[in-house]
Amino acid sequence: MTEPLPSAAPPDFDRLNSAQRTARRRAHMMRQALRQFANLPEAKRKAGALKVEDPGVLDANYSRAVPEGGLILKAYTRILDFKDSGYCKGSCKALGGEKAARDHVWITKDEVKAMAPAKVEVGFRYAMPVKVATRLAQYHLIDNTRGEPEPWKPDDVRAKRMSLVVTSATADVIELRLEGEVLISTDADTSKAERGYEARLLGLLRYQVGKGTFDRFDLTAVGTHWGEHTHNSPARPGKGVLGQSFELAGDKPGDLVAPQGIRDREGYLGLK
Questions:
Q1: What is the mean pLDDT of residues 190-205?
Q2: In 145-208, which ranges are E strands?
Q3: pLDDT of residue 177
Q4: Helix, strand or coil, per DSSP, at residue 79
Q5: Comparing C-alpha atoms, which of 60, 68, 64, 73 is closest to residue 109?
Q6: Three-state SS at 216
Q7: DSSP character for 80?
Q8: What is the pLDDT of residue 21?
């Protein structure tokens, strides 16, 4: 029996429920397509029955290729509350607002090289490469717990400081501490800003000298967030605590999903 298509939502259906309805519609279409495929003659269902022509030169603006020799970070975002002098799981009335949001961060091979310390000396401090710091601030230090928000505009990043400090070093391994803070708001006067985020960052990284890459990249950002983006409303009233964590991804299919921000490829990779 064919599953009935979900009925249209009333005009006042909230956006998140609308998004859920869209997901149900897509699931219905996929099941319908599978049934149609199963009804095809066996000859048309065999591997190689369908010939796909060479697509030719692909448009670079729509490239979703993982940066070769670079790094992929898994990013998690969750709303928090402050209770008994500590942080706890946040409460939110919006559908899905209390769950962790997921994304990925892409860092290129050249940026990995630029993150390595110029001096193998405990206490040596240096700035995070500008492109990496900018990408984190604009595209990832953001509340995406209730939808897919647009990135911050360059001018919204009022202040960002991210630095790396060598904490221990041998001929093979260099351990680093990442320290930072950001102030992002839609108005220079934060009291007038519709949206904003003020956060501190702390991370631990480990660089393998022989391999020329990092095998640890643990980063946490916690701060005060307020307001809502176009596609992730409604926000919690007033100002609330937002927490984010980043860690190295693996090589499973799910780890290779492109960042949400790569839709703005040139901006995301710093090509503009």
A1: 96
A2: 157-169, 173-185, 196-208
A3: 98
A4: strand
A5: 68
A6: strand
A7: E
A8: 60
Token reading at 55: 């697509």
CA nearest 241: which of 100, 143, 102? Answer: 143
47, two tokens: 């591997």
CA distance 268 to 272: 9
3-class DSSP state of 227: coil
Q: Show the tokens assigned to 148.
A: 């897919």
DSSP string, 90-103: ---SSTTTTSPEEE
With beta carbons less than 8 A apart as the criterion, state whether 245 and 203 touch: no
Handedness of CA 74, 141, 263, 98 (dihedral sign): positive
Phi and psi at 101, nearest 5°, equal -90, 150
Distance in angstroms (rounded) separating the CA atoms of residues 151 and 221: 17
Q: How far apart are CA 229 and CA 40, in angstroms?
A: 45
Q: Is the pLDDT of residue 160 over 50?
A: yes
Nearest CA to 112 among 152, 62, 73? 73
Q: What is the dihedral of CA 90, 93, 94, 98, to 10 degrees?
A: 20
Check if the beta carbon of residue 188 is closer than 8 Å to that of residue 180. no
List residues bridging with 175 in a β-sheet.
168, 206
Q: Give 91's pLDDT tier (boundaries 50, 70, 90).
A: confident
Q: Which amino acid is at 214?
A: F
- Between the CA of residue 255 and those of 73, 139, 221, what are the distances in Å? 8, 18, 21
Q: Model confidence over 108-127: pLDDT tens digits?
A: 999 999 999 999 999 999 99
pTM of the model: 0.79
